[in-house]
Amino acid sequence: MSPSEDGSFAPKYGPRVMYAREMISQPVFAAFCAGGVAGAVSRTVVSPLERLKILFQIQSVGREEYKLSVGKGLMKMWKDEGWRGFMRGNGTNCIRIVPYSAVQFGSYNLYKTFFEVSPGQDMSSLRRLICGGAAGITSVFFTYPLDIVRTRLSIQSASFAALSQAQRNRVPGMWATLVTMYKTEGGIPALYRGIIPTVAGVAPYVGLNFMTYEIVRKYLTPEGDKNPNAVRKLAAGAISGAVAQTCTYPFDVLRRRFQINTMSGMGYQYKSISGAVRAIVIQDGVRGLYKGIVPNLLKVAPSMASSWLCFEMTRDFLLTLRPDTEDL
User: What is the spatial distance between Cα 30 and Cα 65, in angstroms, rounded to a whole number?
Assistant: First the structure.
């Protein structure tokens, strides 16, 4: 304790403030909050490339308005829709990614407590992979309806011939899209359309992302130090994201296709995952499973680098709020 102005010993902070600081500074809660901040920052940074990737992914034979290079695709988006085209769907994406990223980072840190042999001890790569996969599945189930709505909003105003001008001019909001899908496309199942290929891709993606980041981060940490500097953290995030995305990208293409499977003018009418894979390969070859991977890899470096850096900075700050004896 430290003496107050009148010389008596009294708490430096009130009990409510102390309780709040104690709760916020808990490792799992700090990871949860830091994950939300990291998600919002990283997705906003790469929003134009994220949307361009989606427009590339949902194309097929006869629907090739965006069969362009990345640069020309971005220019077309700007010419057709202006700055709003770059940010189309980003508001919904941030509303989705904050809880998604928060649940992902928070649950990963929670699951780690069950797999650690002893607190603070390094886990094996396999255990990191399992914890990351479980965290990815958890976050998907909590936020998937927002993801499918974001996909719809991202392509609704794009200049595809299959979409009428009236459809493009009348772009609904997030809530209106949710309600319309619920009422006209089958209720709750409609809001989770495409979740199976999503989970199939997210589990290994998140697992690989967390596993690779921690391995690369440890490798880049100078001997004798606990943490690498910001540049090394950015590099570790970029590498982990690129590895994870490349390994699991075909699942991401399948997810986007199933999310618009019943969309008027754009539906693919796939009946199964195997049928979708077969149809894509027949129409576009194996390359069809990697449509949009170039803008995806261009975005993944700044996205994951900024995500991991924001996460660690925010988490470390929150951990410093833990009350100690000097605060009493």
Answer: 44
Closest CA to 304 of 112, 36, 46, 85: 46
The answer, yes or no, to whether residue 248 has pLDDT greater than 80, is yes
Q: Which residue has the tokens 């499977």?
A: 261
Provide the angle, in degrees to the nearest 10, between the axes of the packed helices 195-220 and 230-259.
170
Show me where the domains of the chain are located. Answer: 16-154+163-320
* DSSP three-state, residue 323: coil
How far is it, in rounded angstroms, from Cα 290 to Cα 281?
10
∠255-36-138 over CA atoms, to 5°?
Answer: 45
- d(Cα 115, Cα 201) in Å, to the nearest integer? 23
Query: How far apart (Å, rounded) are the C-alpha atoms in residues 280 and 260?
Result: 15
Looking at residue 200, its pLDDT comes to 83
User: What's the Rg (C-alpha) of the chain?
Assistant: 22
- 233 near 312, Cβ under 8 Å? yes
Is 66 in contact with 162 (CB distance < 8 Å)? no
Q: CA 280 to CA 115: how far, in whole Å?
A: 40
Spatial distance between the Cα atoms of 145 and 150, rounded to a whole number of angstroms: 9
Banded pLDDT at 197 (limits 50, 70, 90):
confident
Q: In angstroms, rounded to a whole number, what is the distance separating the alpha carbons of residues 232 and 219?
A: 10
User: CATH: 3.30.365.10, 1.50.40.10, 1.10.3720.10, 1.10.357.10. Which one for 16-154+163-320?
Assistant: 1.50.40.10
